[in-house]
Amino acid sequence: MCRAAGRADACGVSTLAADPQRGALPGAGRSAAAGLGRPTGARDAVPAPESARRLLVVRAVAVAAVLATAGYLGWRVLTTLPEGPALWLGVPFLALELYGGVALLLFVMTTWNVAPAPVPPRPGPAPSVTVLVATYDEHLDVLLPTVAACLAMTGNHETWVLDDGDRLEVEEMVTALGARYVSRPEHDHAKAGNLNHALGLVSTELVAVFDADHVPDPQFLTRTVPYFADDRLALVQTPQHFYNTTSFEHLRPGADLHEESLFYRVIQPGKHHAGAAFWCGTNAVLRADALREVGGVATESLTEDFHTTMKLHRAGWRSAYHNEVLARGLAAGSPDAFYAQRRRWGRGAMQVLRHDNPLTASGLTVRQRLSYLYTLSAWFDAWRTLGFALVPVAVLLTGLFPVAAPPAEFALMAGVPFVLQQVALTLLSRGFAPARFSLLFEVVRLPSNLAATLTLLRRGTGRFAVTAKGRTGEERTRARVPAVLLLLAAVLGGSLLYTAASFYGWTPTRHGLDGTTLVPICWVAVTLGFVLAGIRRIRDPRFSAERRDGHRFPAAMQAVVDGAPALLIDVSLGGAQVRIRGVGVAVGVDVELAIRVPDRASHVVLRGTVRSREGDVHRLQFTGRQWVELAALSATAFGAGAARWAAAGVTPSTVGAAPERGQRVRAAELHPDVVAAAVRGPLVPASRRPTSEDEDARDLARG
User: Fold this and answer.
1) H-only helix segments in 467-565
2) Transmembrane ranges (predicted)?
3) Sheet holding 180-182, edge to edge
4) Catalytic residue among 44, 141, 256, 305
5) What CATH number does the domain containing 587 carry?
6) Which of 19, 44, 163, 164 is catalytic?
7) Full domain range(s) for residue 647
8) Domains of the chain: total
9) Residue 5 has pLDDT above 60, yes or no
10) What is the Cα–Cα distance from 32 to 15, expressed in whole angstroms?
11) What is the pLDDT of residues 482-507, one digit of tens each?
């Protein structure tokens, strides 16, 4: 689910032993290779503890905001409810304000303490780990970097790829890299069912779970596993962060801040101190026995991660949140992907409310109940946003004012709490939620959150829709603006035109140049500005359908193309742009591209075809099944250490005996012609699905 200093091992925390089959990699930490396209990462590390002075200021302003808001709401309830026809407008407006006051209080409680979680020292050997990468239909150039990075993580572990798509090309790639390929006969309950199937096969104490697009750092396990010195700890979650910084969710191109930054870097750390940090589906480590005790990953809702954590907490298990970016994935690149993701999360939240309402569910502490209530109630904020947008419209259309107080008095009584609230929210957000960006996305989220909350009235879990990553369309078509936003913009704009006509006496409503008219006019104008900004962002050509299968990293690295010196301009796992000195190469010619990467003794050599050229700039498409070479290129791009990938291949470490049900015959051995056809370029997914004949052949091959 769907935001300076100190590291765990620098504080005397024991770490996993280095993998003897891979050996230690000098300089394999974050400073060794920043990655070709990784964001600056200036705030990726565990935040430094706040000074006592700053903490005092933050909390003092927060308390002042809560007290001022409580005083304002008391004044509103006791003295300002209007009489007569204005009452029907005054009561809803007061209800919206009361809801906002409760939301402020819950936010202050959640973000009161966001200090880094302490890590207990571990006596004895580290627990065994199986890394599970769940995939269904993601493109191979999205999946390959994750598998390569999981294999390259420091610590004794093995990596399993759980493919619910039964794709031969995935099996070929995974086995070539040295990971274990696992499929299942029945594909029920989507990702939750996929993980539960694997849970029945693993024999390790812990499982680390990654989505197909989230690429971990080498230190992921050494940072998270030490927490499990606590025998009652079931879960360690880390932040979700994204390397495609031009996505729809990011503040601006190249910026680290994104729409979920506040949640992952501030709210989740606050939940940790309430004992309510929850699993977000990826970038997490879980205790296998704890999952088995609660019946496995929850299948009753679409937000299986959140629901499973609540079951763990109800059973007395604990969770921890490690506030350090240790993996990077793909954010929703387009508005359509963003809305599909938020609708799924919202529907899942409503299903949890029906199945395990935190106010009535047994086994939770008071702080856990409030924390879960805050998370689930946040989905209803869209109704508050819509209500605050429409109340001033109603004032302009009817001439009725929802507050029985002089405009100057109302402005003073409401203004002081409002200013304190904004200052408190800014301080409590610790710089991860710029005000204008947050307000913009309140409007942008409106359609998906409204639709999601309405499903509270419907039964069933609904369909699990995988968020589109990588290629999302053949043409760069702009996204369609949700009808709710278009209608809201029309209503807001129409109310301003209606008011202008009222000044000339052309409508039944009479307005004067006083506070009861000027305040709602300004309110509507500002709201309309944010709605139009949201519509403009949705229609921005930058966020149209993505035609590339994978992320393209800018680069400036020396290379050689068929013996000619060249400069690498950018690269993806499907191809590259290079500037070749001399006469260059003709279009259609097959070439070899040799790239000198920072942490590898020899060049990475890839075969490709020149697809087009402009002057000395050549666009190459990689060809053939060059899995190990592409893994080395991926490791460099993501800063995971290409030196771990020798040209001869990698043999994974194993933990325990190989489970028979999880074993499969290599696809290339059983169907070499099919795999060759499936992998036309290195990373083009095949449309062919396994047939019954394939399954019979595999059974015979297994003996």
Assistant:
1) 483-503, 515-539
2) 56-75, 87-108, 386-404, 410-428, 484-506, 518-538
3) 180-182, 157-163, 129-135, 206-211, 284-287, 233-237, 318-321
4) 305
5) 2.40.10.220
6) 164
7) 553-651
8) 3
9) no
10) 19
11) 999 999 999 999 999 999 999 888 99
